[in-house]
Specification:
The complex is a heterodimer.
Chain A (H helix, E strand, L loop, with lengths): L1 H20 L34 E9 L4 E7 L2 E2 H9 L40 H5 L1 H4 L27 E3 L4 E4 L4 E3 L2 E10 L8 E15 L2 E16 L7 E6 H4 L8 E12 L8 E2 L9 E13 L2 E2 L1
Parallel strand pairs in A: 1-9, 12-13
Antiparallel strand pairs in A: 2-3, 2-10, 4-13, 5-11, 6-14, 7-10, 7-13, 8-9, 8-11
Chain B lengths: L1 H29 L4 H20 L7 H22 L2 H4 L6 H20 L8 H27 L3 H4 L4 E4 L2 E4 L3 E6 L2 E6 H16 L10 H21 L8 H13 L7 H28 L7 H7 L3 H14 L9 H6 L6 E2 L8 E2 H4 L4 H9 L1 H25 L4 H20 L20 H12 L7 H4 L6 H13 L4
Antiparallel strand pairs in B: 1-2, 3-4, 5-6
The chains are: A alpha+beta, B mainly alpha.
Chain lengths: 310, 488
């Protein structure tokens, strides 16, 4: 009787192994050979991943005053975006031990921004603002999947080109977080503007309204809060290091909104004011139109500083 | 009375050591705890190798010790130069104690293999069960981990696909899971495949095992080998099976071609001629790589020596070891004691200097060259020749190969063939700059060295190769053969 039981166990073990082997639990995040990373601008739009937007049952909107947010351009030699934010919210750039974190060699004496192509963390943690406080370092779950491009702490291009950024149409993106948010102190975003005019009209400033959506689950439905930050300045086609750092402090800008229970986030943009192209000329989408310039917001990073998750 | 008690105690100690050695071999083969634990295993290997001789009731034969020392000279040279080298001294995080442990570890496992027959309580088949069983367990767990991510045949199904991790996309078809330390990590196929490959090779040893006479050996090896084969099939990874062809050829040669003892003259002719041809070929490769592309204007030779994928890597490694990149001059120190871990080369006038990371050296023998210098390289090559020649003379002497011996020979041969083409020194997909040597703290290498110790045969002795001579030494050889029966 005993040996029969044992033999059944022995037979079950490989079966259990095979069942486990058949899970194939990573196939939902499979992409082509070079996802969003081709030589053709139009093929790199981040589309087809609308997780939450379509299931929203009620929506609230809030337009933020300029005093509620921080924003600033960074380009070679003038990292005002970071310094403006540092002046307004000095605590934002502190790690858990109270050490100051940096983002560039003009913001500090140390060039500290992390590059996703360099897998070594050692020299960046505790020094680099992006890599130390990014969502990927807050919780390991944020490292999985394509959205990890926005959670890895890389605030500049640093030679990684389309590997580093997410190229957005005006519809932007929505995503479900791998965990539910409990609390956070700051929302920090980093991006720049680009189009496929190839070398023409570079270094121009573009201004756009950015809408960030927060999603909460209420039973089977989803409630959204759209927060719009007006007239955020960006530089167009001025290289991957010319990014804009912008965002808000939740306790200042959204003091009445309870972040606990936020399951996802989205970002879109509107009211683009381009000094060169009129809205008829520029297509803010991945829809190919011959002879028309395609343009996009290149989003590098989404950070929820000092966030806790469940 | 006291003597009987002493013998009894020695036998008990011998039994305990025998079991501990089996456990040690399993742990090393599995790589339990990862590379950081390997140093501990090497130290235990050193202790056990001494213990085998300490607790043995047999006296140590001075003649045999001398033979062992002579046979081991190339291995000692390799161990010394590959462990205490410029490469490891310049390697970040390395320590002198690690170098010394590596040196003594290599010699200990060879001595352990040589002395294993002194443990009367160990059967060679048990050693095989322990080693192959541990590898089979490692392969089973790793295969299940790999399949749990993308399902069966994922290497074929998702060969052109990618996934994202920490902001970077990785190719699904280029990686597999492998248990390393106490977690599963993503490694290159070249690195992970060596484990199922040696299991598959041991499967060929079944040609030498009679299932009626040795049913346990037959079915255990069948089961363990099948796990290796199943791993390749379920993952959809069939490319490594190409390297089984030379292993299968060797198995067929040993099994179906009757090996007769050679006369000394034939033996000498074959030995020296193959050595001369091989040495000349090596010399040409070295001169071409150090001097700088002498065959550029000879299309055929240019294609062979400069543009083949493997020789291009070899040329770059030799050039990196011998030529200082900054001064473009011959660097004797680096050539003798190994290159710096951060060395680069611009072989064949390359615009951008190539580092180890970009060369991705794949040839085990030439990894020994840059890790330990020319003496380490020669030591390894000569030791491999000693083992081959010793085995050849032993097989010729006995005119047959037992099942256990065949499995050991095929295991060693399979490992050498595989890592001579597919070594992966930067195997971790997500930690691209982490260097992993095919020698240092590498469990399979120590197992192969252990097996080499099992196969020890002083091939230079007349009685080992002469046919039809019934001299006194031949009678000694027969006595020795009986002692070696436990081993081979």
């Amino acid at each position: 009787m005993k040996s029969s039981f044992k033999s059944k166990i022995v037979l079950l073990l490989p079966l259990a192994g095979l069942c486990l082997a058949g899970c194939a639990n990573d196939v939902s995040e499979v992409f082509g050979s070079s996802p969003f990373d081709t030589d053709d601008f139009i093929d790199n739009y981040f589309v087809g991943r609308d997780d939450l937007g379509s299931s929203v049952s009620s929506r609230e909107s809030k337009d933020l005053a300029n005093s509620d947010i921080f924003s600033g351009l960074n380009d070679s030699g003038s990292y005002t975006g970071f310094s403006t934010a540092r002046v307004k919210y000095p605590n934002m750039f502190l790690d858990s031990k109270g050490n100051n974190l940096y983002v560039s060699n003009t913001d500090s004496t140390y060039f500290a921004d992390w590059n996703a192509q360099d897998p070594s963390d050692e020299e960046y943690l505790g020094v680099s603002f992006g890599r130390t406080l990014c969502l990927g370092k807050t919780d390991e779950v944020f490292k999985y999947g394509v959205m990890s491009k926005l959670y890895d702490g890389q605030l500049h291009c640093l030679g990684a080109y389309s590997k580093a950024r997410v190229q957005l149409t005006s519809d932007g993106y929505t995503t479900r977080f791998p965990k539910t948010l409990v609390s956070a102190d700051y929302l920090v975003l980093c991006g720049r503007w680009a189009d496929n005019s190839i070398g023409l009209n570079s270094n121009d400033s573009v201004v756009s309204d950015i809408t960030v959506s927060f999603f909460k689950e209420n039973g089977s439905s989803v409630e959204a809060l759209d927060v719009t930050m007006d007239a955020i300045p960006f530089e167009r086609n001025n290289g991957g290091s010319s990014t804009t750092l912008f965002g808000l402090k939740f306790s200042d800008a959204l003091s009445s909104y309870d972040l606990s229970g936020v399951i996802g986030m989205g970002l879109s943009y509107s009211n683009v004011q381009d000094p060169v192209y009129t809205s008829e000329q520029v297509v803010y989408s991945n829809e190919r139109k011959d002879g028309v310039i395609n343009s996009a917001l290149m989003l590098y990073e989404v950070m929820l500083l000092n966030s806790t998750w469940r | 009375m006291e003597d009987i008690k002493e013998i009894k105690r020695t036998k008990e100690a011998n039994k305990i050591i025998a079991n501990l050695i089996l456990v040690l071999l399993s742990l090393v083969a599995f790589g339990f705890g990862g590379s950081s634990y390997m140093n501990v295993y090497l130290m235990f290997g050193f202790i056990f190798s001494l213990a085998i001789f300490t607790f043995s009731t047999e006296k140590i034969d001075k003649e045999k010790t001398k033979e062992l020392l002579l046979f081991s000279i190339p291995l000692i040279v390799f161990a010394l130069f590959s462990s205490l080298s410029n490469f490891w001294f310049s390697y970040a995080g390395n320590s002198l104690s690690g170098d010394l442990i590596s040196f003594f570890g290599i010699l200990s496992f060879f001595l352990l293999g040589y002395g294993i027959y002194r443990c009367r309580d160990i059967k060679l088949s048990w050693v095989l069960y322990a080693i192959l069983g541990a590898i089979a367990l490692l392969v089973s767990i790793s295969t299940v981990c790999s399949l749990s991510r993308y399902g069966f045949f994922y290497l074929i199904k998702y060969s052109g696909n990618t996934y994202f991790y920490d902001g970077v996309y990785y190719s699904i078809g280029d990686e597999m899971e492998l248990i390393s330390g106490f977690s599963s990590v993503k490694v290159t196929l070249d690195y992970g495949n060596v484990y199922p490959f040696v299991l598959c090779a041991s499967l060929l040893g079944l040609l030498f095992v009679n299932p009626k006479k040795q049913p346990v050996l037959f079915f255990v090896i069948l089961g363990e080998g099948a796990i290796g084969l199943l791993s390749f099939v379920l993952l959809g990874d069939f490319n490594p099976l190409i390297y089984l062809i030379p292993v299968a050829l060797l198995a067929g040669l040993l099994r179906f071609v009757k090996l007769t003892p050679l006369t000394r003259k034939t033996n000498t002719i074959i030995g020296w001629s193959s050595l001369v041809v091989f040495s000349l070929l090596l010399l040409v490769v070295f001169v071409n790589a150090i001097g700088g592309n002498y065959f550029a204007n000879i299309p055929l030779l240019n294609k062979i020596f400069n543009n083949s994928l493997l020789l291009n890597k070899i040329n770059q490694i030799i050039n990196m070891t011998a030529i200082d990149y900054a001064s473009k001059s011959f660097n004797l120190l680096s050539f003798l004691f190994g290159t710096s871990s951060s060395a680069v080369t611009a072989w064949n006038g390359a615009n951008n200097p190539a580092s180890l990371l970009s060369i991705n050296p794949a040839v085990m023998e030439f990894i020994a060259l840059y890790e330990g210098g020319i003496l380490s390289f020669l030591g390894l090559c000569v030791f491999m020749l000693f083992v081959i020649w010793g085995l050849r003379s032993l097989i010729a002497q006995k005119c047959q190969v037992t099942g256990e011996a065949a499995i050991i020979i095929l295991f060693m041969f399979a490992w050498v063939v595989f890592v001579s083409f597919n070594s992966s020194v930067f195997p971790f997909i997500r930690e691209k700059t982490t260097y992993v040597s095919p020698f240092r703290r590498n469990g399979l290498f120590y197992i192969v060295i252990f097996f080499a110790g099992c196969c020890f045969k002083p091939f230079w002795k007349k009685d080992a190769i002469l046919a039809g001579e019934h001299s006194e030494s031949a009678t000694d050889a027969l006595k020795e053969e009986k002692r070696n029966e436990i081993v081979l």
